[in-house]
Write a structure and sequence with these properties.
Elements: E1 32-36, E2 39-43, E3 48-49, E4 58-66, E5 78-83, E6 89-95, H1 106-120, H2 130-140, E7 146-154, E8 159-165, E9 169-174, E10 177-181, E11 186-188, E12 191-192, E13 195-196, E14 208-213, E15 219-223, H3 225-228, H4 233-242, H5 246-261, H6 269-276, H7 283-287, E16 300-308
Antiparallel strand pairs: 1-2, 3-4, 4-16, 5-6, 6-7, 7-8, 7-13, 8-14, 9-10, 9-15, 11-12, 15-16
Helix pairs in contact: 1-2, 4-5
């Protein structure tokens, strides 16, 4: 996430992806673990059924993450969570990279936030409420830093409950049409709402809370802003329609986002938004009929969930 720390004074930040994936109801022998520098990544197998046993709908989930080109060795600053609890839970946290300018590892806050979310997932007080889960995970996070975060919880009855702080996002697609799209929260362009170790940041009380009734055959696409700043909604719908399984769809979307992010001539959602906010090329380039274009280099995290009956 190319964003700023929200403080009285501001500094820069980008954001990207290396994942924490936890799935408590999956067979532990089907989960692979690998070390990445200072942390362990727990990765559920492709197209793992996120929903546990029981009647009603659940999620079949695939995920894919591509770090910012400059952060490949460190693994990026995103973290995400996939759980089989109830009908399925998915979440993404995007570490605000401006903290690196203060010698703080921006990845630590997002990783701990997601680890805490997993820990509290089945807590009685949470009561399968994504907003309360954010509250408890944030309160338990001791790392210095900040992150945007989104959590979506699917009830077996087909109600998808969403809580979002910042500019991660989620879309719901049904029969080739996007029936729901979350809206980003920001203080101003490139400075999203963010959960923080500092009192000036946002809390669960600032989250946008949504409820969407989904049905078998729907597809849920969640991601960091590295996806949505580089890929248009119609492209997301087309990619999802062309893929049979969630893992392939997640990889295809992440690959497309990366391709667009590296193309200086692509008129991306990010460049269009920047121009709409008054950021553009110098006047003399405008005389030459030039304009601000290009994708946004960033961490890219994609989670795709297919609703199964």
């Amino acid at each position: 996430m190319a964003a700023s720390i929200f403080r009285l004074t501001l500094s820069n930040s980008p954001f990207n992806s290396r994942a924490i994936v936890e799935s408590p109801k999956l067979n532990p022998h089907s989960i692979s673990f690998r070390r990445s520098r200072r942390r362990i990544l727990c990765c559920a197998p492709p197209d793992s059924g996120a929903g546990g046993d029981g009647a009603g709908v659940s999620l079949s989930v695939g995920s894919y993450a591509i770090p910012h080109p400059n952060k490949v060795e460190k693994g990026g600053e995103d973290a995400f969570l996939v759980s089989s609890y109830n009908g399925g839970v998915i979440a993404v946290a995007d570490g605000v990279s401006g903290w690196a300018e203060q010698n703080v590892n921006p990845a630590l806050f997002s990783q701990e936030l997601m680890a805490n979310a997993f820990f509290f997932l089945e807590h009685e007080e949470v009561n399968f409420d994504p907003c309360i889960l954010i509250k408890k995970a944030h309160a338990a996070t001791s790392s210095i830093g900040s992150a945007t975060a989104i959590v979506a919880m699917l009830e077996r009855s087909g109600i998808l409950k969403i809580a979002n702080v910042g500019d991660c996002g989620v879309k719901v697609i049904r029969k080739g049409q996007m029936i729901f799209s979350s809206s980003p929260q920001e203080h101003y362009f490139d400075c999203p709402y963010q959960l923080s170790s500092e009192a000036v940041g946002q809390t669960y009380l600032d989250a946008t809370v949504s409820r969407v009734e989904v049905q078998e055959g729907d597809t849920i696409v969640m991601g960091s802003d590295g996806l949505f700043d580089n890929v248009f909604d119609h492209e997301i719908v087309s990619v999802v329609a062309a893929q049979q399984d969630a893992s392939n769809a997640a990889k295809a979307l992440a690959d497309l986002a990366q391709s667009h992010s590296l193309d200086p001539n692509f008129d991306s959602p990010y460049s269009q938004e920047a121009r709409a906010r008054g950021f553009d090329v110098p006047w003399w380039k405008k005389i030459l009929q030039m304009k601000l274009t290009g994708g946004k280099l960033d961490d890219i995290t994609v989670i795709v969930g297919q609703v199964k009956g």
